[in-house]
Specification:
Layout: H1 51-55, H2 59-73, H3 102-112, E1 122-125, H4 130-141, E2 154-158, H5 162-168, E3 180-183, H6 190-199, E4 210-215, E5 226-230, H7 235-250, E6 257-261, H8 265-268, H9 270-278, E7 282-285, H10 292-299, E8 306-309, H11 317-326, E9 330-333, H12 338-347, E10 363-368, H13 372-377, E11 390-393, H14 401-409, E12 413-414, E13 425-429, H15 437-447, E14 450-451
Parallel strand pairs: 1-13, 2-3, 2-4, 4-5, 6-7, 6-8, 8-9, 10-11, 10-13, 12-14
Length: 457
């Protein structure tokens, strides 16, 4: 890949994405104690992957595939002819004897990138690390082919600071809308550099004149405008600093505040999507206590409801009691494990808080529960397009039973006219080592529009 060629050089000018928001209602079930979530190795042994992943390994091609699918696909159900969803790969002509060559069909599908990158109900951002996934998500939301399609600012986070990244997801909320990119103290990863070159943030009044916000000890990015640094001595201090910046830039108090566990990333991950969608800041409890920076941030908005994300094993009742001394309006949203916790948050509603996704017709983002930085990397997808909650899978190969049942519960259907139906769409985050193509295909099937009832008269 040429360092001088913009990452989106071949992307055509798209139309605007559709947007929609969920209403609210419902509450989670009581939580039980989960097992600790395993950590993924920094470098994983790679399995043999389809030819498409080998042919389209460069981020340029990856970005093109999912940007086109996202922008043109909209909320496309499989039976909506106007959705712009990818067409099935062509099957080669039958061999002598009449039956088509299965190996030929498979090779053709792989060469076109299906289903590894897109199906009619799913789109994959298939980066091999969070930096590539964040760059892909940012370009999916901001194709950057015209100035109007570029963000005023970006947030750049340390690849080792998942907690700061999840807290920084709030900067993607309106009016700022700053997508997140990933960097490091030692230098800017190539996908991030390419995305910055394409996005060209310039700063604006909404960003306070800043073109970039850096979180943690990352290398200063090369951008046209000012860079605002956000630093803290701990996860709680960094999150509190981001919340204070959010108040200044947004010019108003938040409607709600989220408190997550700084030492349980698998339970904290769903907070990133909600922060990006709502503008509600994320603060942290740590070590079974309420850190002073979090307490001080809560005290600034004593009348704002507080929602604690995660079961008692992640954030004990004693922390809720400490919060209640500052703000009596405190609630818990929880599931027994990381997968169930994300589903509970997707279902939850309390007045204006919560996704309340309990029926068909929604977007979703699916990531691995042991890759917390991917939750922040993908947060921009929950604040645009098909606006949907983050869901988690705990395996590369197998869709968790609870998640399968949730998708089945929300499976869309129609009686006589599929073009007037509601559709589900799922963004899949990560490469085949994170979520393999078989699991993606199962998710696609669960999101498929189904015929309900008898034949049309």
């Amino acid at each position: 890949m040429s360092g001088e060629r913009p990452i989106n050089a071949d992307v055509p000018v798209p139309g605007g994405p559709e947007a929609g928001e969920a209403a609210t209602e419902d509450a989670p079930k009581p939580a039980t104690t989960p097992a600790a979530a395993p950590k993924r190795a920094a470098r994983r042994r790679r399995r043999r992957v389809p030819g498409a992943l080998k042919l389209i390994a460069a981020l340029v091609a990856v970005a093109i595939v999912f940007i086109l699918a996202a922008v043109l696909g909209g909320r496309g159900g499989s039976n909506d002819a106007s959705s712009g969803s990818p067409a099935p790969a062509p099957v080669p002509a039958p061999a002598k004897g009449g039956a088509p060559s299965q190996s030929g069909a498979t090779q053709t599908a792989e060469a076109l990138g299906y289903p590894a990158f897109a199906t009619n109900n799913t789109t994959r951002i298939g980066g091999s690390d969070p930096a590539a996934n964040a760059a892909g998500a940012a370009l999916a939301v901001f194709p950057a082919t015209t100035p109007a399609q570029r963000p005023a600012a970006v947030a750049i986070v340390d690849e080792e600071d998942w907690a700061g990244a999840i807290a920084a997801a709030v900067l993607m909320a309106p009016p700022l809308r700053a997508p997140l990119l990933v960097s490091s103290p030692g230098g800017t990863p190539e996908p991030t550099a390419q995305a910055l070159a394409a996005l060209e943030p310039q700063g604006s009044p909404a960003s306070g004149g800043a073109a970039a916000f850096t979180v943690g000890a990352v290398a200063a990015p090369e951008v046209a405008g000012r860079v605002t640094a956000i630093k803290g001595s701990s996860a709680a201090a960094t999150a509190a600093a981001i919340a204070k910046l959010r108040d200044r830039l947004f010019g108003a108090a938040p409607a709600h505040v989220l408190v997550a566990a700084a030492d349980r990333p698998d339970f904290a991950m769903p907070a990133a999507a909600w922060a990006a969608r709502s503008g509600d800041p994320v603060l942290y409890a740590e070590g079974g206590k309420l850190p002073p920076p979090t307490a001080a941030a809560l005290a600034r908005h004593r009348d704002v409801p507080v929602y604690v994300l995660g079961p008692a094993s992640a954030i004990p009742a004693s922390v809720l009691a400490e919060i209640a001394k500052i703000d009596h309006r405190v609630h818990r949203v929880a599931g027994a494990d990381a997968v169930a916790n994300a589903i509970a948050f997707a279902r939850y509603a309390d007045g204006g808080f919560g996704w309340d996704v309990n029926d068909p017709g929604h977007g979703f983002v699916l990531a691995r529960s042991d890759s917390p930085l991917d939750a922040a990397a993908a947060a921009a997808l929950s604040a645009s397009g098909t606006w949907g909650p983050l869901l988690l899978t705990d395996s590369a190969a197998t869709l968790p039973k609870a998640l399968r049942e949730y998708f089945l519960d929300l499976k869309p259907g129609y009686t006589t006219n599929p073009t007037r139906a509601f559709y589900n769409h799922v963004w899949v985050i990560g490469d085949q080592e994170a979520i393999d193509v078989n699991q993606q295909a199962e998710v696609n099937e669960l999101a498929e529009l189904a015929k309900i009832g008898g034949e049309e008269p």
